[in-house]
Amino acid sequence: MPMTTTEDQRFAPPLAHVEDVAPAEPALAGRGIRLGAAIIDAVIAGAAGWAFAMIPWFASISQAHLKAAEQGMWTWNPMGLLIGIPIFLLIQGWPLVTRGQTIGKMLCKLRIVRTDGSKVDAFRLLGLRYGIGSLTGVVSGFAMIYGLIDSLLIFRGSRQCLHDTIADTKVIQL
């Protein structure tokens, strides 16, 4: 039986132009919300440092750290690393490795991802993103210079700080 025109049109390709739609890429986190997350993390770190300083053994280490700091900002002082890194890992290590978030980033609904959007591995997060900046802390002067350059680079179009560039990461909004 011959097909009519209405039956032929049912099987015809669409006449409208149809483009493949790529999934929307998550938005980069704003500078202000990243600052807010960093402030939350700093308050948590400060509270943890204060709590550990109340323990008698840590109090004696803290006093040695303060005496070394009085010698000047270019003095070798590894005590900050010996105390700070374990405290940081104790508080922020697990959420960073499993979720790509610090507690501040969780509260602000932000996440650290690779620049291609994939999950960040532990070495890249803890070693490159946070570790290199922490190592500059053995000399306060280096830490100040690194911190200044690191924070000013967020004003680039990519909104990546120096630690983001080193680790090939970016911070996105959830």
What do you see in this structure?
The chain has one domain (27-173). The chain starts with a helix and ends with a strand. A two-stranded antiparallel sheet has the order 1-2. The protein has eight helices and two strands. The protein is mostly helical. The mean pLDDT is 86. It has helices at residues 5-10, 31-53, 56-69, 79-99, 103-107, 122-135, 140-152, 162-167; strands spanning 110-114, 169-173. 59% of the residues lie in helices and 6% in strands. It is elongated, with a radius of gyration of 25 Å. Helix 4 packs antiparallel against helix 6 (122-135).
Which features would summarize this protein structure in a list?
single chain, 174 residues, mainly alpha, two-stranded antiparallel sheet, membrane
Radius of gyration: 25 Å
Computed structural class: mainly alpha
Number of helices: 8
Q: What is the total domain count? A: 1
User: Tally of extended strands?
Assistant: 2
Strand content: 5-15%
- Detail the poorly predicted runs: none
Q: Sketch the major β-sheet.
A: 2 strands, antiparallel
The rough form would be described as elongated
Q: H/E element string?
A: HHHHHEHHHE
Give the proportion of residues in helices.
55-70%
